[in-house]
Amino acid sequence: MTTAAHDVRNVVLVGHTGAGKTTLRQHLFQVAASLGSHVDVTADTAAGEGRPSSPGSNRATGSNRATGANGATGANGAWPGVGAAGGGAGTASGGETAQRSVSLVLGSLRHRGVTVNLLDTPGYPDFVGELRAGLRAADAALFVINAIEGIDGSTRMLWDECAAVGMPRAIAITRLDHPRADFDAMVMACQEAFGAGVLPVYLLEGTNIPDPDYPATAATARTDGAGGAGAARRTPPRRLIGLVTGRLIDYTADGRHEHEHPVELTGAAADARGALLEGVIAESEDEALLDRYVDGAELDPKILLDDLETAVARGSLYPVLPLMIPPGPERGAHDFQPGLGTAELLDLFTYAFPAPSEHPLPRLTRPDGSPCPPAHADPSGPLVAEIVRTTTDPYIGRMSMVRVFSGTLRPDASVHVSGHGRAAAGHPDHEDRERIGALSQPIGLSLHSVDECAAGGLCVITRLATAETGDTLSDPADPRYLPAWTMPEPLLPMAVQAQARSDESKLSAALGRLGAEDPTLTVRHDPDTGQLVLWCMGEAHGDLVLEHLHDRFGVTLEKVPLRLPLRETVRASAEGVGRLVKQSGGHGQYAICRIVVEPLPAGSGIEFVDEVVGGAVPRQFVPSVEKGVRAQLERGLVAGFPAVDLRVRLVDGKAHSVDSSDLAFQAAGGLAVREAANAAGVVLLEPVLEIDVDVPDEHVGAVMNDIATRRGRVVGVTSQEGAGAGGEGLERGSGRTMIHAEVPALEMTRYAIDLRSVSHGTGVFTRRPHGYERLPDQLAAKVTGLA
Ligand SMILES: Nc1nc2c(ncn2[C@@H]2O[C@H](COP(=O)(O)OP(=O)(O)O)[C@@H](O)[C@H]2O)c(=O)[nH]1
Ligand SMILES: [Mg+2]
């Protein structure tokens, strides 16, 4: 099965949890099948979450459930995300949507001779890593927006992010069967949020069932907005108006029926058509087309659709489309009813969405960083592919979802694997050579073997040994390196410990495996506190990691309170004497030293000064005293945390010609510094972080107040230009502000979660160590358990 780059569409579905992405993805497969497209299964699967069928056995029509059971064998709940994203597929009632999606799911369908790869992303912020991978693998994004809940802050942010890289976008408005849903109002909300390039390509016609609350006109669109805000509708809409063609499309119990002749559009529908055509023609730069439009002549829908594609591909026009997929009992192929707008959406993918060949390729180098010729989506070009997702199957082993950017990937080929730049997250740079095994494509509930995957395609490779998410695959004869996309940094620390001794031995291998699959998980052993800390994206992510460790690797970890690496220092100057005098019988010990401790400014570390005069402490024993002092400071003075920021002056002492020794002076030094510290008083220091919080202007006040309640200090505020709005020709006033602050780490342990609620999901932050500051006494008692 070969597909040229222009016969593929890679579309990522994005949007809030519950917007309807997964429902839509599953439904579209049935629609494609019912339209007679070459899809012979009626549901799809997660990438790597079905089992490769034996080569050549492209399991056809067969009961989707039967295949599902097969796909679920051994796989159910066994791979990351399976339980939530694909595992349900094997259950009796397609329970996939019953659980929260946690992983990127790839499903492929064919429509009008084009392979459409749908990348379904989780909406929950903990799994933003999966979303990032989906954006990387796709050539266009479909924003799925729920007409009832509207547009949330993170959806706006994501839009801006797509805008920044020129990602083509379209919008599907779902849930239009809800009595309070108002398509026109949602279109306006989208225009307000995303700019004037947002233009409907289909409108909803009220209904063709008489409804006293919502009078329908026979053949025209709502012209007066009467059905707009506030007018509750009891009967779901049944009819669309295609603004390019001017044709009506009915969705009735008998299925979809497109009227043959265009209707004359009036009022709001005519205005919407005008706006769309003007937007398309303006982008086309086609003078002749513009002249025809101005003269009021007929325009060829084919030309318009071509130009629409150009405008969408440029990332300057965003088609909007109404959708309705009422939930209900699953239907078999014979009585399947396509949801309103779904066939139009499939058409939009094929006509208006860009092919991979139009997608500019990320910048490439050779593995050593030296420049190389740019690559294109050319099946006969040099091989450049990237691993966008990794899962592990207990029977098959590692499975890698791969986007081929250039060249053609073939089974059993040798490839060069390059992975760079993620050493900080525990993934050392590597250059390897590997042979790839089978290639497959997820169609239906199983993976189907394919002979090749050409530039622009997405496929699944099994049994790569070293390759991890983000790695580049290329030709060993002339290797390439594609810098991985920016992976989100996990900022929620979760301290854990093994429940049983026996688990400890399995733990590091298990964490290594999970780390290879999940770029958003960072595992650290804190040398200061001795704790094992899993840095996660959020609580749900952390819980999922624990669940996988338990279910897949048989390791049970429990969460324990996070310990912070505190420090001690002295409150004031004081003197101390260390005496070690043991001279009763045999070889004695004799060492006396007098020292003074003095506090130093934060960040000074430890200074040791020898002020002994007249050889009171013989020269050879001064280093011994220093060693003893430093060892004691490292062990702590009262609470067991290393001491810092103080000076120790050795001022006097006494030695014995026979009984003094290095060890004796070390011991005396330790005793002296303890006595001095007791006299001076010891205070605890806590680590302080420097944070940069990036939020939309409207949340600045809330974020600053919140920082104050965390004993933080705001040290600077920088306002930024409205991100992403540039080039879209619209003032959106959505500026963002960067708040720089210093906040005790103790108050920041849950900030990854708390900032989300303070900023309604729109804030992001970075953190780095800033130093140590005195821990307030009332907290010191709490932290150490010492009064
Ligand atoms: N009534 C109605 N329900 C829908 C529609 N689309 C999705 N849903 C329901 O919305 C819920 C969440 O959908 P899901 O696809 O899991 O959302 P996701 O989180 O975006 O993947 C499910 O219970 C769906 O049945 C729609 O058009 N109409
Ligand atoms: Mg989902």
From TrEMBL:
<dbReference type="InterPro" id="IPR014721">
    <property type="entry name" value="Ribsml_uS5_D2-typ_fold_subgr"/>
</dbReference>
<dbReference type="InterPro" id="IPR000795">
    <property type="entry name" value="T_Tr_GTP-bd_dom"/>
</dbReference>
<dbReference type="GO" id="GO:0003924">
    <property type="term" value="F:GTPase activity"/>
</dbReference>
<keyword id="KW-0648">Protein biosynthesis</keyword>
<dbReference type="InterPro" id="IPR041095">
    <property type="entry name" value="EFG_II"/>
</dbReference>
<keyword id="KW-0251">Elongation factor</keyword>
<dbReference type="Pfam" id="PF22042">
    <property type="entry name" value="EF-G_D2"/>
</dbReference>
<dbReference type="InterPro" id="IPR009000">
    <property type="entry name" value="Transl_B-barrel_sf"/>
</dbReference>
<feature type="region of interest" description="Disordered">
    <location>
        <begin position="45"/>
        <end position="75"/>
    </location>
</feature>
<dbReference type="InterPro" id="IPR053905">
    <property type="entry name" value="EF-G-like_DII"/>
</dbReference>
<dbReference type="InterPro" id="IPR027417">
    <property type="entry name" value="P-loop_NTPase"/>
</dbReference>
<dbReference type="InterPro" id="IPR005517">
    <property type="entry name" value="Transl_elong_EFG/EF2_IV"/>
</dbReference>
<dbReference type="GO" id="GO:0005525">
    <property type="term" value="F:GTP binding"/>
</dbReference>
<dbReference type="InterPro" id="IPR035647">
    <property type="entry name" value="EFG_III/V"/>
</dbReference>
<dbReference type="InterPro" id="IPR047872">
    <property type="entry name" value="EFG_IV"/>
</dbReference>
<dbReference type="Pfam" id="PF14492">
    <property type="entry name" value="EFG_III"/>
</dbReference>
<dbReference type="InterPro" id="IPR000640">
    <property type="entry name" value="EFG_V-like"/>
</dbReference>
<protein>
    <submittedName>
        <fullName>Elongation factor G</fullName>
    </submittedName>
</protein>
<dbReference type="InterPro" id="IPR020568">
    <property type="entry name" value="Ribosomal_Su5_D2-typ_SF"/>
</dbReference>
<feature type="domain" description="Translation elongation factor EFG/EF2">
    <location>
        <begin position="563"/>
        <end position="681"/>
    </location>
</feature>
<keyword id="KW-0547">Nucleotide-binding</keyword>
<feature type="compositionally biased region" description="Low complexity">
    <location>
        <begin position="60"/>
        <end position="75"/>
    </location>
</feature>
<dbReference type="Pfam" id="PF00679">
    <property type="entry name" value="EFG_C"/>
</dbReference>
<dbReference type="GO" id="GO:0032790">
    <property type="term" value="P:ribosome disassembly"/>
</dbReference>
<feature type="domain" description="Elongation factor EFG">
    <location>
        <begin position="683"/>
        <end position="783"/>
    </location>
</feature>
<dbReference type="Pfam" id="PF03764">
    <property type="entry name" value="EFG_IV"/>
</dbReference>
<keyword id="KW-0342">GTP-binding</keyword>
<dbReference type="GO" id="GO:0003746">
    <property type="term" value="F:translation elongation factor activity"/>
</dbReference>
<dbReference type="Pfam" id="PF00009">
    <property type="entry name" value="GTP_EFTU"/>
</dbReference>
